[in-house]
Write a structure and sequence with these properties.
single chain; 359 residues; alpha+beta; name from scop; 2 domains; 5-stranded mixed beta sheet
Length: 359
Amino acid sequence: MGNESAAEKTESATTRRREKERERGNISKSRDLASALVMTVSVALLAVMGKFILDKMLDLLRYTFTNIHPDTVCTDNIMGIFLPYVQACAGVVLPFLVTLAIAALIIVRLNVGHVFAMEKVKFDFNNISPKRVLDNAKRLFNPFEPRTIVEFVKSLIKIAVVGSCGYATANSRKDELFAILGADPATALGVICSILIKMLINMCIAMIILGLLDKKYQDWEYEKSIKMTKQEVKDEYKDIEGDPKIKSKIKSIQIQMSKQRMMSNVPKADVVVTNPTHYAVAIKYDKTVAPAPIVIAKGIDYVAFRIREIAKNNDIPIVENRPVARALYNTVPVDGIIPSDLYVAVAEILAYVYNKKGK
């Protein structure tokens, strides 16, 4: 059973199995979807910050043509010459990169959720062993490896779809492209930027759609990889709930101990009410303990026989009353107080016993 093949893993993963896999860092994630979203955010940032970036570049050009002349350049202060350019570039690049980094972290969090797996970050010498490296290289360069084939096909599809979107956008506006050949630079630049923005938007939409499809595929592959055999499910249930055989044995012992404790109370009874053979209920009345009589032992068949036997050996009165015996057995638990609807019947039995004993 322990060597069941993957083909026999027909059971969906349990909650505990999923938690363990997540602790190991084994989760369903789509790099294609994350890349598509990061690319979309990048394009959106460029669109939002485009004017700001252009103004910074124009300011830098004005500074260059206004303040720098070949005859006045002093090579002794190279840092002073480049400092304005570094500051201008930092003013453009840093806001873009910081915003993109924050967006990327949010995208990754949405993609994989809250996961911190120490197994993924701790160093393992087995990962750099020659055998492991060789096996990884074989899988990577083996063209017939299923995962390699799937990734290759996915790459071809992405190139074809995204490339087609870009080409379709440019082809739909080819007349404008031909028209800018004789136009002034400002007009030509405006048309080219407009076409590029449209191309990027269409390509981002196509990448997001492909990413969503890849996420579905990754979820399916992940669910398949964590499937369990029936034996694994049973073993896990045993780990969580305990072995049913052991639980049954413990329950049996508890019942046996409860019966022994119950039998030890029979000699303390005032009377045992019987059916006469199938049911036996031992009753005790002590007004200092309870306001009404209580059932201290009860049983059917063999247990009833043992209760009657103990009662005889200890001179406990045995009274035959079929309806009362059945009613007490069915409605009152051991150590339970008899219900009010049985007060009269039980009182008559106790009165008969007390009169017989001369109490």
